[in-house]
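Here is a tokenized protein:
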Amino acid sequence: MPQHPFAIVCDSTCDLPPEIISRLEVVCVPLSVEAGGKTYRDAADREAGLASLRRSHASARILRPGAEEFLAVYRRLMAEGYTNIATVCSSLPRTGTWAAAEEAIAQIDISGGLRLRTVDTGVASVGTGIVVERLAMAREQGVEFEEAVNLARSLAHEIRMLFIPEASSGFMRDAVPRKRSRLMVRATTLRLRLAGERTLFLLSHGEWTALARSTDLGDLCGRSAHAMSSVASSEGDLVYALLGAPGSKALRALKKPLDTNEFCSRRLGRGNASLAVLASIGADAVGVAFVPKEIYLRAGACGPLPEGLIPGRPDGPGDTGNEPQQ
């Protein structure tokens, strides 16, 4: 007999650490990264993979799971008695697995009341993690399968993510307009890296937009807080989750304006950036995913706020990573 009325599947780019994945009782399909001639799986080989990425990030290659890997997960869950399965992932070009999940579902005979649904978050990292956590909360609150999936889709539609990738990251190489020649792309990324110029992006609905460029990281982080303040002024209190390596200069630069903000918000915690995410945006990248608190609570059937995406893992002195921000 299944333990829950429906199963939840995600991929490792949700950036929830293994202990939270276990606590939420969801199934996580890992991505892998090839760097320095070796292949590293998210979570299982994180520390070794991270060290390799820092040495050879420019040549790192992200290996996404195919339909057969999702199919194996679905068949195992069906063998356990699940007839309702929801998959939360994204269709983003570099790290998205939504197409593979959909391809796997197309190979399954859904007669006999079997229901398999996907939620394309349109964002990445902790943005996807927020959707996974709220879907698990809706399940815990007794929300029926189709309604819970629709709530998750509505939440995903409202989540926005502000992030600042490394200038030399694969994402930045892809961000250079495609009409330019390969030589021009290389010249542009080299210029950005040598100048120390970084870019603030907004990601929403699967589309990214460059908002500002600067050699001053603090300025870009301040702009992030200002953008969130503008949203809060029109849409109400926010909840947010951070993306960044613990103790990094970039993370401290982002936390400072958020800790002294003039809008009401609640920090959910800090994500545990997966190798695939870091291979895309760089090990020193930083970001924040946010959504109006009212919409967040509604998606979890008004279940309680979590203690934190990574409770008990401080980002720095005096910081638990999960305290409320007023």
Notes: The radius of gyration is 19 Å.
